[in-house]
Amino acid sequence: MADMRSSIVITVFSTASGIGKTFLATNIAAELAHHGHSVCLLDLDLQFGDVCNYLKLEPQLTIADAQLALERSPDQFRADHFLTTFRHGDTSFAIIPPPRTLLESYNIQSGTLEQLVVALNHFDFIIFDTPKIFSDLILTALDLSTIITFLCVADFVPAIKNLKTGYDTLHRFSYEDNRIRLVQNRSDSQKLILTEDVEQVLGKQFYYNLPNDFMSAKRSIERGYPLVLEGGSNPLSDSLRLLVGQLTNRETTSTVEPEPETQSGGGIISWFKGLFGGR
Ligand SMILES: Nc1ncnc2c1ncn2[C@@H]1O[C@H](COP(=O)(O)OP(=O)(O)O)[C@@H](O)[C@H]1O
Ligand SMILES: [Mg+2]
Asked: Cβ-count burial of 92 within 10 angstroms (0-12 exposed, 13-18 middle, 19+ buried)?
C-alpha cells in the first residue's frame, strides 16, 4: 500500500471511549484546513460515529454507499461524489461519514478502506477517527497511517492498563515507535495518578499534553464547529494548534526520549510491572 499513498494519513486512536478522539480528530482536520491544506476526515467509528454530530452535518451518502459503488464498478468510482463538506467561514474540509445502520457497518470491508485511501490520494491529509477496538478495519487504518496519534486520559488504573496493553500491542505489530505519538488529554485535570508514573509504566514520555477545559470543548461541540476555528486564544485551542503544528512539523518538533527508569515508583508501577513483566 505504502507506494500508492501520497496523502499524509493521521489516525486518532485510543483504548478507551469518551476521552476526546472525535474532538481531537475534528480539530486536527479543521486546523490543517484552516492552514490551506486539503483534508478528508473519515469517521471509522462505524457504529457510533460522532463526527457528523459534532459538526452538525446531515450527510446524504456514507462509506457504505462508497463501498457499494466500488463493488459495482471500481473503474468508474469517483470518491468526490461520496464526500460531505464541512464549512465554517473560509475553512472547509471533506468528510466520509459512517454507515446509517448497524447492519451496514458490519459489512464495511478493510479492502474498501484501502481503495478509498488510494481514491482520496489527492488530499494533502486524510484523518481517521476511530473507535476503541483492534478490529480488521482499524488495523488496516493503522497500517495505512503515517502518524498514529494514540490518545489517552490517564486518570484511572484500568484505563492505564488498557493504554499499556494497546501501546505494547502496537509495538508487537511492529509499528515503528516514531509513528506513534502518545498524547495525554485533560492532562492537568485533578487526578490521583501522576503523569510521571504513567510514563514510567509505558516506558515513554508523552509526546504532548492537552489541557482540560470541559466548557470550551462542550461549547464548540454545541456550536457545531471545532474549537480551533473559534478564533481568539485559550489554553486548549492554543494547545490544539501547537499539537497539529508539531505533528505536521510546522513547528520545531522535539522528540521526547524515554526517561531511564531510575526510581522504583509507587504502588501502581510495581503493580504494572508484575502485570506486564517489566516492559
Ligand atoms: N481537553 C478536554 N477537556 C475537557 N473535555 C474534553 C477535552 N477533550 C474532549 N473533551 C470532552 O470529552 C467528551 C468525549 O469526547 P469525544 O471526542 O466524543 O471522545 P471519544 O471520541 O474518544 O469517544 C466530549 O464531551 C468532549 O467535549
Ligand atoms: Mg468518538
From this structure: middle
> What is the set of domains in the chain, with CATH numbers?
2-276 (3.40.50.300)
Question: What cell was used for 13?
Answer: 486512536
> And the C-alpha cell for 68?
457499494
Residue carrying C-alpha cell 462505524: 46
Q: Is 186 in the pocket of ligand 1 (CB under 6 A)?
A: yes
| Sign of the alpha-carbon dihedral angle for 60, 65, 69, 74 | positive
Structure-block grid coordinates of residue 26: 475534528
Residue nearest to atom 16 of ligand 1 (CA): 20
Strands (E) in the chain, as ranges, are 8-13, 39-43, 84-88, 91-96, 125-129, 147-152, 180-184, 208-209
Q: How far does the chain reach from its first CA to its final CA, in angstroms? A: 31
Give per-residue pLDDT as tens, 241-279. 999 999 998 754 343 433 333 333 345 455 454 544 444
Ligand 2 centroid, distance to 89 Cα (angstroms): 24
Beta-bridge mates of residue 125: 8, 39
| Amino acid letter, 204 | K
Per-residue pLDDT reduced to its tens digit, 112-144: 999 999 999 999 999 999 999 999 999 999 999
